[in-house]
Design goal:
single chain, alpha+beta, 5-stranded mixed beta sheet, two-stranded antiparallel ribbon
Length: 412
Amino acid sequence: MATSVWQAMAGNPVRFVLSRWPWRSLAYVVSSVAVASIAWLAVLPLLLFPPLLLLVGIPIGALERHRLGFMEPLAVRDPHAPAPPSGWAWVRRRVTEAATWRELGYCACLLSVLALLDLAAVFVLFICLLLVALPLLVGLGADVHFSVGTWTVETVGRACAVAGLVGVPATVVTLYGISVLGGAQAAFAKWLLAPTGTEVNRQVEELAGSRSRLVNAFEAERRRIERDLHDGAQQHLVLLTMKLGLAERYMADAGGRAGELVGEAHEQARLALTTLRDQIRGIHPQILTDLGLTEAVRELAERCPIPVEVDLVLPGRLPPEIESTAYFVVSEALTNAVRHAAATRIQISGRLAEHRLALTIVDDGRGGAEPSLGTGMRGLADRVAVVAGTLEISSPQGGPTTVRIDLPCRYE
């Protein structure tokens, strides 16, 4: 299926006339006439306030980008930079943008040359349709006076001849002309109203900055939760455990059920403290904050119930968000290898080259892992994507399973 009016016109003429493109082009041209008419009603009062005319192109440009959907398969993005929602700060930002002046230029063209061309095309099509409908009008007894030289259309037969020999070909040619006009006008509008290369790069940079701020905010919130758990709930549990231990010792000599209950409470408090410490370690291990990724991965390897070989060489500390992302990928890979893959050996290797961290985790398990079926790996992929990295998983039946991540970073 053709994705543009130009591709459709290059094909079979009959197929083109019967396709959607003539009608989409007609809708675009007719709506252009309607938009120009309404815009003139809005612009005329602004002639009393010339400075406001500088901004009239902004709402019209937004509407025209939306109307390009008639002719363009992909939506056209807004070229404007973020600005305060209102006030003089918004006006100053918009007046200094090149996109505002391009929109103003397009608005001037739409209200003059383009409006006249579109109106003329619609009028010509109206005449052609009248010729096609001439037999119906004559048959209904309408007062029709149509003549070509000395030849006058007075009967239905003559009206059918005019419709077939003149009306239908003229309508087809006019539809082609309207399609050309619509395609050219859409291309002109896209040229002026779509973001330029510089504006696209600026939007990409803003998106990257927003993503970086989101990651930093997540890290700050995580550290706050970790600090609150460590300094608050954990300290209370430590104190409770100590006091229950003392109470258990004092009541041991007295015997009875009270000593047993205190002992059970002491054990439950100890288990709660262990669980809380594990949760804190799961949020962000202290060793990762203090000593970095290499030592944190080695600690993971020591705690793993199966042998893990670590070959991770880094020249220094990495950005906190990169260390955190890499750590949790390794942790999830080890957990999956132990729980699901029946692995007997795991290898972890990583290097930093050209400001990119390449990390690989390989296990000798049974393989067959399907990342799309597990939320854990999908979550890791999303987490890696947040820092503009990539994650690849290879897990054929029978193994081995290989997890690779590539993260952009600059070490400190």
